[in-house]
Amino acid sequence: MDLDVFVTAHRAEWDRLDQLLRRGRRLTGAEADELVALYQRTSTHLSLIQSSAPDPLLTGRLTQLVARARSTVTGTRRATWRDAVRFLTEGFPAAVYQSRHWWIPTAVLSTLVAAVIGWWIGANPEVQSAIAAPSELREMTRPGGQYETYYSSNPAASFAAQVWTNNAQAAALCLTLGAFLCLPVIWILLLNMFNLGVGIGLMSSAGRLDVFLGLVLPHGLLELTAVFVAAGTGLRLGWTLIDPGPLSRRTALAQQGRAALGMAIGLALVLFISGIIEGFVTPSGLPTWARIAIGIAAELAFLVYVYVLGGRAARAGHTGDLDELERSAKLPAAA
Questions:
Q1: pLDDT at 84 exceeding the cut of 60
Q2: End-to-end CA distance of the chain, in Å?
Q3: pTM of the shown model
């Protein structure tokens, strides 16, 4: 393509499109039709330039022009409560359901890693001595020690807020850093599983594993599930860079990235619930069986939510991605 000839041939159309856009809503019916036609034509011009003769300045100008035209043609819409309800009943559960082949294996493997680490620490006193001095280990694992008082060390409301913030940040990191070929997500998972394994190992060596599980399970079931979902989604996002499938790498990554952004919002709500349980239920005076029952009920409710609502929404075609009209305009590909 001779870029100078192409620009000379179509500059008048681009200038006319810009002129119509500057007039805003003060267009006649014929002018509105002309604007739509010029928008479609300019989108094709932009695609041809990007694929055949990329020029940064011209591409930038036409990209802005196409974006402004699309905004005028499709209009803007405000988010409503109906959008929030649709997100919670269709978009988010469908996205979690569709990524189950990633986060379920992630959950199983991570749990096995934590169990192996816990067994290794619990069965080897020399490993325990490498973690801390014997007096410090006794202080952590004794009745009323640090493992037990941790959950009641601060007022319930502030503790729940702190826990929610920390867990939401960990989930967000898993979702966003997955694009770096999955490696940061694996590292975050290993750190979390190591910390859990240390607690299991030290408390089991002190003969108090039942106490530890009674403290962790009420909130930990839902909390870890949310972390596993975030990690699985991050791994899926990273794998998209390696194998985008039938789509172009940019299109596939954009699609998975938009779904991951919605997932972050939904998981923040899930982690908020687990934070409430950790702040108010875990340190409460309820019997251990009652606290664990609340944790199991919350976990089962989430799984039913994903598999019933999410499965139904996924079969109806929802993916967690934005609706067609809310996405960036797709430019036609040059042959």
A1: yes
A2: 13
A3: 0.72
